Amino acid sequence: MAVMVAGGAGYIGSHTVAELLDRGQDVVVVDSLVKGHKQAVLGGKLYIGDIRDAAFMDSVFESNPIDSVIHFAADIEVGLSMKDPLAFYRNNVYTVMCMLESMKKHGVKNIVFSSTAAVYGYPKSVPITEDSEKNPVNPYGETKLTVEKMLRWCDKAYGIKWAAPRYFNAAGAHESARIGEDHNPESHLIPIVIQAAMGKRESVMVFGQDYDTPDGTCIRDYIHVTDLADAHILALEYLKSGGQSASFNLGSGSGYSVTEIIEKVKEVTGKSFRVDIAPRREGDPARLVADSRLAKEMLGWHPKNDDIGKIIESAWKWHTTHPDGFNE
Ligand code: NAD
Ligand code: UDP
After folding, report:
1. 11, 96, 247, best to mutate for ligand 1 pocket (most atoms within 8 Å of CB)
2. CA 13 to centroid of ligand 1, rounded, Å
3. Which end of the chain has less Cβ packing within 10 Å, N or C?
């Protein structure tokens, strides 16, 4: 049987495809390549198309023995979601609805869906457990929470089993450095700081230095992309062995401030660069740190690359060997 990886040419999807292939799984990737990269797909079959195209999806399901889906496909930029919420409902809710309709039609009963820490909004305390209040403060987080609710109803009505890992900050690259993060435009902190270290940016802007944190900058929980990939595969095994549908956090449990990340990149790379203080970015909580005990207990998940220096080293190796990302 084969696993369909929707959005498998993107950052986290391509690393999950690599892990599945390493484990001898048959993989079918579906990606529009609107954001993803063909070269990021290291094997399996790649079908280029949009999940909202029902005829295209029928042909993929009909030509392959697919028994489960990992769904990464979404728009991911929080700032854009504030400017154009409808575009986010269209791609982050309607696309998953189309996927579920295709799964229902073709009798596929297991889905792992990418959720996010953004469902918690401004948490009252950290580390965040799954039962913390869900109050998204941007349309991006809201669309992910909406899908989690949609999945609950689909389980009740159609018996579709789901797992919704809520990731904190994905970072790092595959140990081979053959694949890594290549978002355009890039908005994530670690690749931006690395671009400054490589001399590709004049400076790094720190969005706010007046938060209620020890150094005044925001604290985040960075989780290596390979550990995320591993958790998705464990979640599929969990569902296939009869596990109940569930949402769960995926993070390292350690928080690093923006300033600490900048200092760590300087230490790992031996490079220095200009750092400017900028105003706060709208919708940024001061601290987001995961309590991932549920994923560890439920899936037997053990993140292996939780050293922030190693995470940055792996990203540095990818970016320096691919200064133009996949476009070379
Ligand atoms: P990405 O943009 O690199 O990958 C998404 C992929 O989906 C792209 O290859 C894109 O072409 C494809 N896609 C989008 N819409 C599609 C559609 N309608 N039909 C077919 N293909 C489509 O994003 P990523 O960083 O790998 O994130 C993957 C998932 O993880 C997203 O759902 C995101 O919301 C979630 N997530 C990411 C992070 C992070 O730190 N990157 C954190 C939390 C959650
Ligand atoms: N950040 C920053 N400068 C940048 C990009 C990000 O100061 O150029 C900060 C951002 O405000 C947040 C943290 O770095 O506090 C992580 O941001 P990122 O966009 O990587 O992930 P998010 O937590 O928003 O998902």
Report:
1. 11
2. 7
3. C
